[in-house]
Amino acid sequence: MDALIFSQTFFYLVISFAILVLGILAAIVAYHLIGITKRLEEISGDISDTSRDAREGIKDLLAAFSRIPFLSFFTKRKSNEQRKKGRGKSVSE
Question: 88 or 15, which is more confident?
Fold first, then answer.
């Protein structure tokens, strides 16, 4: 009977130790996931800044092209009236 009590006590100690180890591993995984999330936030901010800079560069490039007489025909913007009117509609409508 003593062997049975000893084995049950040993089993409970091993299970308790395993639960502690799993808890520590879960905390380590959570810590690294939080770090990854912070780095992803920084990366998305960098991508946002880069896209904003690229958008401004493209606008500046189009503005430079619109000053060239031959290319200004292709890069000029339509007025609001032309956009509302659309293609193929008559002026009387």
Answer: 15
